Amino acid sequence: MRAMTPEQYVQQKAAASGSSFYYAFLFLPRERRAAITAFYAFCREVDDVVDEISDAQVAQTKLAWWRREVHSAFAGQPSHPVMQALMPLAPVYDITAAHLEAVIEGCQMDLTQSRYLDLPDLSRYCHLVAGIVGEVAARIFGQTQEATTAYAHKMGLAFQLTNIIRDVGEDALRGRIYLPISELQQFDVKAHELIKRQYSERFTALMAFQTERALALYDEALALLPPEDRRAQKPGLMMASIYRTLLREIQADGYQVLHQRVSLTPLRKFWLAWKTQALGRVG
Question: How far is it, in rounded angstroms, from Cα 10 to Cα 40?
Fold first, then answer.
């Protein structure tokens, strides 16, 4: 049996995640698709270290290995298939070692911090795990305007807050609560209620507050996107359409996120992506 090429490896890694991002990549030209697939596979690899390794010490060691790998790869010696797939394309799209190190730093925060005091505190984490990802993605999609970076960062924050809302129950079971402590206190929701999956009117009010803020961020992000880059940034707009629709489903379902992970079917994701591609509409 022939060994997988780096390109096949990253393709498999991206497809296996079943992520909304994957559906947006399908419509890209070949080289851009190869670049975003390799970058996304890198993000998945690093993220999986934190999610799949229960021993924090082992996870720290693995992240330190990824830091060295990024350094070696940018010095011309990539050893991991993800970096072998990414490196030929990194200079084409101005992807730097600092971008990848920021993603690793964000995942490292998950090992050292499981609570966030307030929104600015949470936003710093979101900047690393989502804002930077948005920035790199915008470059790969074909950014031409400086202002598109601000759009990408704000959109990344909207995506991450959507993930936090969707995964409240799952994260709480892992001992992580991303909802800011100040806002839990504001709505009088206790951490143990999330862990025990206890719904209440207070919890519903808290989640409605989180959802309204996330939905407003999508509007703010779209307003920042320069018209000149709107066409090139369609993959990001596809993801916005999918994520926004997911948020509205959660809202319509009464925020039943403690005992389940609400998701859209692959067909629905594909349809939303196609609609954005064909009609230019964001759901």
Answer: 8
- Going by the DSSP 8-state scheme, the letter that residue 261 receives in this structure is -
Q: Are residues 67 and 188 in the same domain?
A: no
Closest CA to 127 of 145, 152, 148, 144: 152
pLDDT tens-digit series, residues 158-192: 999 999 999 999 999 988 999 999 999 999 999 99
Q: Which two tokens stand for residue 141?
A: 């999609």
- Regarding whether 167 and 108 lie in a shared domain, the answer is no
Q: How far is CA 244 from the centre of its chain?
A: 14
Residue 239 belongs to domain spanning: 146-283
Q: Give the separation between CA 193 and CA 78, rounded to whole angstroms.
A: 46
Asked if the structure places residue 226 within a domain, the reply is yes
64: nearest Cα among 53, 14, 276: 53
Domain CATH number, residue 208: 1.10.600.10
**Which of 125, 129, 160 is closest to 47 using CA atoms?**
129
Domain count along the chain: 2
